Amino acid sequence: MKFTQLPVATAILYVLYPQISFAEQTTDVEANLEKIEIVGIRQNRISEGATGLALEIDETPQSISVISAEQLKNYSAFNINDALRLAPGINVEEWETNRTNYTSRGFEIKNTQIDGVGLPNDWGIVTGAMEAYGYEKIEVIRGANGLLTGVGNASGTLNYVRKRPKNENGGEIGVSVGSWDFKRLQADYSLLLTESGSWAARFVAAAEDKESYLDGLENNREFFSAVVDGQLTDNSTVTIGYSYQDADTDGNTWGGLVYNYTDGTQAKWDVSDTTTQEWTMWDTINTSAFVEYNYVFANAWQLQASYNFRGFEEQDKLFYASGSIDKDTNLGLSGWPGRYDSEVDADLFEIKAFGAFELFGKEHQASFGVSHAKSDDVMYQHPFDSDNTPAYGPTPAFPYDLDAIPEPDWFTPVLYSDIEQKLTRYFGSAQLNITDKLFTMVGFNAIEFERSGMNAGASIDNDESETSPYIGFTYKLNDDLNLYASYSDIYQPQEQADYNGQYLAPTKGTNFETGVKASWFDDALMTTFAYFTAEQDNFAQYAGLTEDGIYYYEGVSIESEGYEFEVTGKITDALNIVASYTHIDVTDENGDDTNKWAPRDVVGVTMDYALTDAVVVGLNGRWQSKIESTDYNVKQGSYALLNAFARWNINDQVAVQANVNNITDEQYINSLQTVGYYGAPTNGSLTLTYKF
After folding, report:
1. What pLDDT, on the 0 to 100 scale, is given for residue 462?
2. Would you state the pLDDT for residue 23?
3. Is the pLDDT assigned to residue 118 strictly greater than 60?
4. Region at 95 (left for phi over 0; alpha for psi -120 to 50; beta for the rest)
5. Residues in domain TonB-dependent receptor-like beta-barrel (predicted)?
C-alpha cells in the first residue's frame, strides 16, 4: 500500500498499525482517530537510537544490544553502573567511589543519549550513582556511530529510553533491604488523564540509603520523574517531561587504593581499606527536562521538534593519596586535599523529519534534520594553606584511621575553569532497498564545534568543523539470516591538554565492521557475530606531569580490532538467555599493546528460567582476562563473578525477590583504567513488590 494513496487519518494509522488493512471502513477509522492515535503511538513506540530510522536490530548494520526492563528488575539493577554490567561488550570502570567510565572495544564511551537525543560526554566520566528506575530500557550501540552525534571514537553509544505513559492506569511500589544497611523505596505509576486516553502521565520516584563494605562510605539518593503526553490535534502530539536526582555521599575516595610497594612488588589490602577521611563528601544534583512535538503529514511523514535541558551541580571535599609504600613501615603515601564547586548547564534543540518514500518501484525510508547544543561548565576551587595543612604532605602509615588527618581550613573559592561549548549538527540517513534482499544505509553528519573559555589558567579558543559519512549494507540470505557491513569516520574533540595547557586537536580515523545476524525458533532467538577494526590518529595518551603537577597528554596513533559473538532471546518458553564473548586487540603506532587496562577477552552470560508459573530463577556471570595499569605497574589476574536471583510471584499483585551478588566472594580490583579499588564482596538484597 502506498502512503500517498491514503487519506491523512488513515495514513497516520497505517504508520502506527502496519499490520492492519485499511482498504475498507476508512470512515470509521477517521471518526475514531482522536481516541486511537495517541494510544497507537504508545503501543508502537520504536526507538531510533541506532540510526535515526525505524529499523529492527537484525536489519541494522552495527552491533546493538538491549538491556530490558525485565533484566533490570531481575538483577536489582537500581543504578546505571549495575545496569551496564549486564550489557554485552561493556566494561564498567568504577575507578573511584564517585566517578566511573563506561568502555567498549578498549575505549571510553563519550556519547550518551536519552531517547535518541544527546550531547557528547566530556571525558566519558559519570559522576555519582545515576538512578536507573526512570528508564524503560538501555540500548548499547557498539563501535563508532557517526549517524548519532557526528562525533565519537571507536567505542560506542549509550541510549537511555525513558519510561513514558501507558494506555491504562496502574503501577507498582517496591521495598528493598540488604547488606550494609541497604534500604530502598520505589514507586512507578501511569495515569490516564482523559477518558479517551488521549492524555496520560507517568510518575516515577525512588529513595535509597546505603552504607558500604568500604570503611566510612555512605550514599543516599532521591529521584523523581514525571512525563505527560497527549494529542493536540488529529495530526499532532506533545510530550513533556522532567526528572530530578539529589545524591549525597560521605567518605568517598578521590582516586583509588595504592598497590605499589617501594621494592616494586604489588600490595594486597583488605577489601574494606580506603584512602579517604571522614570529612570528605561529594554531593550532586542532576536535573533534566524536555519537550517533544510530533506532527504527522498527509503522506505519513513525521516532523519532530524537541528541546532538552540537562543540569548538573556538585559540591565536594576530597582527599587524594599517592606514592609508594614501604613494606616494613607502611609509610610513603602523600596526601593532597581538594574542594570544588561545579555547575554545568546544557541545552539542545533538534528538529528532524522522517518517513517513507517510493523510488524505482520500491519503498525506502529517510531521516534528516539539524540540532544545536550549547553547554556552560563552570568550576570553582577552594584554595588552602599548603604550609600549614596536615592533609597536604606525608600521611600516617597505611591503612590509617578515618580521623587521622584533619580537614583543611578552606579559603574563599576562586574560578578554576569556565568553558562554553557549542555543537551544531546537520544530519541525514536513508535506508535504500536495492533489491528484495539487499538494502543499504547511507548517512552523513556535518558538524560545527566551538569551545572557548578558561581552564586551569589557560585560555581556550577552539573552532572545528567536520563532515563524516556513513555507509552500511545488509543482505538477506534468507528470512532468518542477514549479512552486514558498515563504515564510518571517527571524529572526536578531546578534553586532554598538552604541556602548555592547550586542548589536543581532535582524534580522527575510520571504523569498519562486518558480521552476520541470524534468527532462530521463529525469531525467538537471535545470534550476532561481528568483526571490527578501527584506526585513530592523534589519540590522547598520558605523557607525564608539568612542573605544576598537572597531567598533560600527547597525541598518538592507535589501531584496534576484534570480534564479538552474542546470543539473545528465548531458548524455550521458560528459558531466556543473553550470552556474549568479546575479544579485542589494541596497539600503538609502534605495534605494542596499549590500553592494557581493557581486558582482551570478556565472557558474559545472563539467564532466567521459569520453574513454575509463579517461580523464576536466574544467573548472571561475567569472566574477564587479566589486565594491568599502564602508568602504575599494577596487575589484576583473570576472574569471574556470579550473581543470582529468585522471585516468587505470590499472586498477580505481590512478588518477593532475593538477589545474591558475587556468590564466590571473589576479591578483585574493579578497574585499572587509572587505579581502582576492590569490588564488593558477597552481598544480597530482598525486594517486595506490590502491583496495583
Report:
1. 86
2. 37
3. yes
4. alpha
5. 233-663
Q: With beta carbons less than 8 A apart as the criterion, state whether 531 and 513 touch.
A: yes
Task: Say what the pLDDT of residue 386 is.
Answer: 94
3-state secondary structure 493-510: CCCCECCCCCECCCEEEE
More confidently predicted of 4 and 612: 612
Q: To the nearest 5 percent, what fractions of the chain are helix, strand and coil?
A: 10, 60, 35
Indicate the pTM of the whole model: 0.91
How far apart are the C-alpha atoms of 550 and 544, rounded to whole Å? 8
Judge contact between 166 and 190, C-beta under 8 A. Answer: yes
Other C-beta atoms closer than 10 Å to the C-beta of 657 total 21
SS3 assignment, position 43? helix
Q: Given its phi and psi angles, is residue 105 left (phi above 0), alpha (psi -120 to 50 degrees) or beta?
A: left
Residues 6+ apart with CB under 8 A from 179: 213, 683, 684, 685
pLDDT on residue 369: 94
**pLDDT tens profile 356-367:** 999 999 999 999
Q: Do 630 and 594 meet the contact criterion of CB atoms below 8 Å apart?
A: yes
Instruction: In whole angstroms, give the CA distance from residue 514 to residue 533.
Output: 9
Q: Report the alpha-carbon distance of residue 347 to residue 119 in Å, rounded.
A: 9
Cβ(489)–Cβ(469) below 8 Å: yes
CA dihedral sign of residues 550, 554, 555, 556: negative
Measured distance CA(260)–CA(631) in Å, rounded? 11
| Dihedral angle sign, alpha carbons of residues 496, 120, 451, 146 | positive
Per DSSP, 457 falls in state T
Q: Which helix (H) or strand (E) holds 241?
A: strand 236-250
Q: What is the dihedral of CA 318, 319, 322, 327, to 10 degrees?
A: -150
How far, in Å, are 227, 340, 417, 434, 484 from residue 380 at the CA level?
34, 6, 7, 56, 49
DSSP bridge pairs for 654: 690
Computed over every residue of the chain, the mean pLDDT equals 89
584/20: higher pLDDT: 584
Residue among 496, 596, 599 nearest 543 (CA): 496
Q: What 3-state DSSP class applies to 406?
A: coil
pLDDT given at position 146: 54
Chain CA centroid to CA 310, Å = 15
DSSP 550-606: -EEEEEEEEEEEEEEEEEEEESSSSEEEEEEEEEEEEEETTS-B--TTS-SEEEEEE
Helix 8-16 vs helix 33-43: angle between axes, to the nearest 10 degrees? 30
Q: What is the pLDDT, as a whole number, of residue 37?
A: 58
Beta bridge partners of 134: none
User: Could you give the count of Cα atoms lying within 13 Å of 658 in the half-sphere of its Cβ?
Assistant: 6
Separation CA 300–CA 280 (nearest Å): 57
Confidence of residue 625 (pLDDT cuts 50, 70, 90): very high
Asked whether 469 and 462 are in contact (CB, 8 A), the reply is no
| Tens digit of each residue's pLDDT (9 = 90 or more) over 205-237 | 999 999 999 999 999 999 999 999 999 999 999
pLDDT category of residue 250 using cuts at 50, 70 and 90: very high
pLDDT digits (tens, 9 = 90+) for 134-182: 999 999 988 876 555 556 678 988 999 999 999 999 999 999 999 999 9
